[in-house]
Protein: Cob(I)yrinic acid a,c-diamide adenosyltransferase
Amino acid sequence: MPQGQPSVVPDDGLTTRQRRNRPLVVVHTGIGKGKSTAAFGLALRAWNQGWPIGVFQFVKSAKWKVGEERALRVLGDSGEGGTVAWHKMGEGWSWVQRGLQGDNATNEEKAREGWEQVKRDLAAETYQLYVLDEFAYPMHWGWVDTDEVISVLRDRPGTQHVVITGRNAPAELVDFADLVTDMSKVKHPMDVGQKGQRGIEW
Amino acid sequence: MPQGQPSVVPDDGLTTRQRRNRPLVVVHTGIGKGKSTAAFGLALRAWNQGWPIGVFQFVKSAKWKVGEERALRVLGDSGEGGTVAWHKMGEGWSWVQRGLQGDNATNEEKAREGWEQVKRDLAAETYQLYVLDEFAYPMHWGWVDTDEVISVLRDRPGTQHVVITGRNAPAELVDFADLVTDMSKVKHPMDVGQKGQRGIEW
Structure:
């Protein structure tokens, strides 16, 4: 529950309003639960502000996020808040024509295709909040160049907020990001033999 | 992204299905961001399962959760997933008659009134997911007895999941809970003088 009182007032020549509206890069990392869940919770606030939201799921299987996806689609279609565009790598990205290259592409190629689309959308200012779910993995694995990501994010136009989730966020990205939370596992039911369950894990 | 493979199979006489459907007590604690946000993200999954959801906000001001509240109310009213009941301490609990005692009650009394209602709802199995937002504080401050909370949660009937958020979760509660995540702050824009902003902090 932040109280809105910064501990330091920086000498950066910006007004409070300019500083307040500075677009953020947010990273949720660590081995605990809640990284993606908190990112989708943040999307609820963006939706309430009427912002266009773009979700890019950088995972092979779409199994685990069905609840969030359905909820955000219903919200996006409700006509009350912002819009929601949901892109899934698992089924092949929607903008990649099937049969052409999508079906035979490796996960590495698909991850790169996803990042290329994010770059196009950032340049066009398509969304005001980007949820790049599990995007830390392709960077960690070297599929997408972290320095390029940082450079693109640094130079993005307008006030576009970007949230990146995933267990092994590269140190350079953590250094660059404005807001970083590490979700640490204290305990998990799987440690004592419980499997994932409906409504909790998905 | 849990893979669903427990590392230990316990000798507790339960089938996998019984173990899987065991109701959970989940705690989000720590000084970082994302504790409440991840709890509301979890509520999206519960909503998708069609579960009745009860949110109890144990905070004086309702300022910071307007986005989540509006989103969950729209979802609850959409007729597509579960229902959502949202209770706020800030405005006085809805079940406490105004003018009688609600207006003059201290925050300590209000927190206790909130907990009494949670107890009644748990006994009646009113909801399948309870989000007790910021409930760690009244326990930490001694307003609500942690041992009683644990005892009530241990003996609750049916399959009711309970998520408790807040910075200083008591150690006994952490010991008792099934799933605990500690949100650690790595960095936050307020450290460098940025105030909270629309769509991110609320």
The mean pLDDT of chain B is 85. Chain B has one domain: 22-183. The first strand of chain B starts at residue 25 and ends at 29.
